[in-house]
Amino acid sequence: MNDTIARSILVVSLVKVVVLLFLVLTAVAYLVWFERKVAAHIQGRWGPYRVGPHGLLQPLADGVKFLLKEDATPAGVDRFLYFSAPLLTMTLAISAIAMIPFGPASIHIFGIATPLVIANISVGLLAIFAITSVGVYGVALGGWSSNSKYSLLGGLRSSAQMISYELSLTLSVVGILLLAGTFNLSELIMRQDGYTWGHLPKWNLLNPTFPQILGFFCYFVAAIAETNRAPFDLAEAESELVAGYHTEYSSFKFAMFFLGEYASMITVACLASILFLGGWLSPFPQTPGLDWTRYLPAGVLAVAGVALIIHGVRYINVFGRIALPVLGVILGALSFLCSQPGVIDDIQGPFWFLAKVLFVLFVYVWVRWTLPRFRYDQLMRFGWKVLFPVALLNVILTSLAVVMRK
Amino acid sequence: MSGNLAQAYAPLLIHLLVALGLSAILLILSSLIGQHRPTREKMQPYECGITPVGDAREPFDVKFYLVAMVFILFDVEAVFLYPWAYVFRELRWFGFTEMLLYILILLAGYVYLWKKGALDWNPSKTQRDRQT
Amino acid sequence: MDTAAFRHDFFLILPEVELALFGLAILLFDFMLGVKDKAGNAVFAMLGVIFSGISLYRLRTFGPEAVGGFNSSIVVDPFFLFFGMIFLVATGLVILLSVRYLQIENEHHGEYYALLLFATVGMMFMASGYDLVVLFLGLETMAISFYILTGFLRHQRRSNEAAVKYLLLGAFSSGLLAYGFSLLYGISAMAEINGPLGVPLQVPRTNLDVVRTALELRGPTDLLVLLSLVTVAAGLFFKVAAVPFHQWAPDVYEGAPTTITAYVSVASKTASFALLLRLFLYAFWPVRVNWVGIIAAVAIASLTLGNFAAITQTNVKRLLAYSSISHVGYILLGLVAAMSGPDGNETGLKGIAFYLFVYAFMTIGAFAIIIVLRRQGLIGDELDDLNGLFQRSPASAVLLLIFMLSLAGIPPLAGFVGKYYIFLALIETGHYYLALFGALYIVPALYYYFRIVVHAWLREPTGEAPTRVTPGQSVALAVMCFVTLVAGIYPEPFIRLATYSLTLPSVLFGR
Fold it and tell me: How confident is the model at residue A207 (pLDDT cuts 50, 70, 90)?
């Protein structure tokens, strides 16, 4: 009896893992496309346009290119470390998503009900931070093992930057823990259920005891620095150190570093929306007057589908004239599916969660293409002399507020 | 209880193994599929077109070590803050004052580091003159 | 949380807390002092030591029983009061001696005094700890402060080398000690023990009472017990520089700043002995039968090597390092006597405590003369630098004579009384051969101690002007000389102090 339960859990988990990894890798690939498009429009140009309609097949083309490129391993590298660094980075980057809950509902796989999270462990938050902390090894080892001065310096700088900001990252979350008293991510979201100050949702950002605005600021900035993104990307900026720790990597190993960076970006965005923005909770109160908000997912998909159809039939080339309307019809069908009584309740959670994650990612990309790059000593000064005291101050103030409320 | 623990963590293990396997497969795949035409110029480490001179693993600046050391100190502090935050609601004022004292002691160390210049990545000219 | 209980516990650790706060304050206030005013740090440190001493004095009202605090992880008993007093006095003396020395060396930073105070905090926890974890923490706090202090003369290669050697060997031995502690924890965690009144234990299994009971249950011939004893002993023998583990001592003593040499050779040794006594006289008491022989062997080895190696030394600091190894031998002989017999031997305990007490004063005194000799262009630790001290500075020469006689064990000075009690205890417990060896080894000791005296009194001076002694150093020297003389001529009050200190009552179970 126990054996069959164990086996069924194994099979169900395996299915969930495979599906999630597939989705995450696709999401990472299309995040690259999203970034290139947004960057382009910020800079007043089109971005990828030719490879498939609106560049939608660009990620596929890039993937194929990375696979087929020559894998030139420079002389004098430390072979074991050289190969294990990108492996480590990518594995850890896509592993942290295992603890993220996507919604409150349970789905049924092979008849077994299972929640929308792979590992709903009681210390989920801590596990995610543990995994991202080990990710520093990938950077340091990658820089060291490539037999190049640029790589070494870039790797050292990157890892020094990552550990400096990791401190503020872990501290900025302590405020959330004080308010919630649990590490479990699903429970953290449940604590943010409800409404306060009139009709504002009780997300941690607007917590009635002590709004975690400082915490969110610290977390977001630290997360950008932790993932080595602009304006904190001096360690891999082209004009500075060629490409930092991944100078000597080519073909798919470089792609793995690249994917690892974007995957950790997604993890951080998911965590930001769970911790500060209420996760899969809807911002609208569930009162009868606002019942129409339950049709928002369906509505959004319908609008997108119709817009795609209308735009697609007037697209430049033939491929686009066929592909885009088909995509639009698919979106319309999905929208119809989302308004059915069976699906409409289950789809609320993932929809709002994905919306918030997308918003955070958009801000991420927006920040990258708006702000100029920090110089490295400015970066370190900011991390140690500004962010760390602010995070500590947040902890003290939050604990004061919590204890005064009792 | 331990069965419950295994039930909760087994999916994480599966996820890690699948992720590792996937990355390994992709790595091996790329080595197999791509071309292999090594030439002397391609095998050299890249230094903006000039020929690299000397071993790449030279001694590097001690300030990296200093950053790592200071990180360890304050990371241990943050680690102690986590279980405290977990049980904080039961501890009330006593817990608050205890942790405040703890943070203040570490803050004294932090102020010391700041004044000594351990947190400066590049000492300015006046600081360099003062140090000697 | 019960605030009354917390206030009680806090009162118990008030000496350590005050020292730590003063140390932190020195670190911060150092930035506000100009280069000329760095002596203010020393004043601050001295204030800290005085306040801590007052708090320690106020703790004596708890009487001869032991009072446990923080869930019986620290204990305040006469043992702690005695050793705490020794540490504070040693720290105070070293602070007084250091000011001028550091000014001459040009390394007069506030961190020195802060580290001294932090080391003292560590030492006091080593004496008052009642839980393996607290003992280890105290040991490490003290040790790390000492590693830094040993390398304090940053521009001298000797000092850097000494610090690195001390760090490496100290870290290794702390690792061994931690391994022994983990084995002890394993033994006590596996044992089936109930607390007093039969209820389940309320204290963690690393508490010394629990460890002692567990060892009693396992018996002295058990393999785990033996292994844990070996590793703990190895770690602790390193710290006191007993013979197979003494290699660090001469180099560290020679390279460190002389004030730190004095401090390490006194305070670190005394604190490590406090830890050793707490463990061997209390936690390992039930399994001591096999160990008396080994400790005797280590003691004889230390005596032999210490005395014979010191004969050929020309550097006074190295000479005193080897001689301190021989003193460790004497103290270990006292431990052998104290552990012999079914109930131990009280004379042995008295001898150890008294010896540690006077050892502090006479050793710091001996080093103090070298410290006073330091001036521009003369480091002062070679034997030839002492030539003609009597002509240059008669007072220093007389003090040197007193301290050397005391170290050699000549009546009517304090060193003699200490050795007397140890030999008495050895004879009382039937270790005649050990007593004979101990007495015989006084002969080489006399040789090298008197060699120093000969250089100071009978050689022609090679140096120049007489040395300048600051008021602080004079006070320190006066105190040490006073204690050395008085404890030798009229030892009664000090013996009573030593007797009072070495009752080791249990905290949980009552003895």
Answer: confident
Q: C192: which residues sit within 8 A by CB, 6+ positions away? A: C217
Q: Give the count of domains, chain C.
A: 1
pLDDT digit string, tens, across residues B75-115: 999 999 999 999 988 888 888 988 999 999 999 999 999 99
Residues 6+ apart with CB under 8 A from C214: C187, C188, C190, C191, C193
ipTM for the whole complex: 0.88
Domain residues for the domain of A104 are 58-281+373-405
Task: Note the pLDDT tens digit of each residue in C178-223.
Answer: 999 999 999 988 887 776 666 777 788 888 888 888 888 888 888 8
User: Does some domain include residue A4?
Assistant: no
Would residue C375 count as lying in a domain? yes
**pLDDT tens-digit map of C38-84:** 888 899 999 999 999 999 998 887 767 778 888 888 988 888 999 99
User: Rounded to whole angstroms, how far apart are CA atoms C361 and C379?
Assistant: 23
C27/B108 Cβ within 8 A: yes
Interface subset of C 18-77, CB within 8 angstroms of B: 24, 27-28, 31
CA distance B42 to chain A (A): 7
Give yes or no for A403 touching B (CB within 8 A): yes
- Asked if residue A301 belongs to a domain, the reply is no
Three-state secondary structure along chain B?
Answer: CHHHHHHHHHHHHHHHHHHHHHHHHHHHHHHHHCCCCCCHHHHCCCCCCCCCCCCCCCCCCHHHHHHHHHHHHHHHHHHHHHHHHHCHHHHHHHHHHHHHHHHHHHHHHHHHHHHHCCCCCCCCHHHHHHHC
Assigned token pair, C226:
């033996």
Looking at the complex, does the CB of residue C482 fall below 8 Å from at least one CB of chain B?
no
What structural domains and CATH numbers belong to chain B? Answer: 2-131 (1.20.58.1610)
- pLDDT, residue C456, reads 84
B76 touches chain C (CB under 8 A): no
Closest CB to C1 among B94, B108, B109 = B94
- For residue A235, pLDDT over 80 is answered with no
Contacting residues of A for B35, CB less than 8 Å apart: 68, 70
Q: Residues A98-110: what's their mean pLDDT?
A: 84
Residue C316 lies in a domain: yes
Quote the domain boundaries for residue C397. 288-504
Name the residue among A179, A233, A187, A174 with its Cα closest to residue A395.
A174
pLDDT at C503: 65
The reply to whether the predicted model has a pTM over 0.90 is: no
Most confident of A4-8, B40-44, C249-253, C413-417: C249-253
Residue A117 lies in a domain: yes
- Residue B108 C-alpha, separation from nearest chain C C-alpha, in angstroms: 7
- Is residue C466 in a domain? yes
For residue C113, give how far its alpha carbon lies from the nearest alpha carbon of chain B (Å).
15
Asked if residue C492 is part of any domain, the answer here is: yes
Asked if residue A129 is part of any domain, the answer here is yes
The total number of structural domains in chain A stands at 1
Judged by a CB distance cut-off of 8 A, whether residue A129 touches chain B is no
